[in-house]
Please model this.
Amino acid sequence: MKIAAQSLFFVSALATLSLACSVVDGVEITFYGFPDNDPPGAGTAYNCGGRNNIAGGTGTFDDPLTFASDPNEYSQCEIIYLPYLKKYLRMEDECAQCETDWANGKAHVDIWTGSSTVNGGSTQEDCENSLTPDGGQEVLRQPASTYTVDWLALYSKV
Model:
């Protein structure tokens, strides 16, 4: 009986470890939106969370922002947390530059900004560029749902 209890404890501990948050350092962060999506618009490669292949989100755990990357770097519909922005993100799209970077050993996440129905044009692209940090950032994989969230939109056409 004691061995069975120890085995159960060991299996439970391994299951907990496999679900634990992990940190990835040095991730390149860029931004995209309606005007510079390929093709222009809000279409995404994957249907996650019932969005019907439309980019969006507010950045909460229950409504993460769309992000794009290499499908070999992140799993389809995987949720991550970005401390730099204090937002949750979900892998819903592909990114050609991210795929090139990943093939060369560089982690890269491209984050959706703006509306899923309104093209912000060059003003939105300027905003995306201003949001892009100079250095690599920390990304949390398999994050808890309790991290602080910044509710402000990354871009809103006025």
Summary: The first helix runs from residue 2 to 18. DSSP finds three helices and six strands in the chain. The chain has a mean pLDDT of 90.
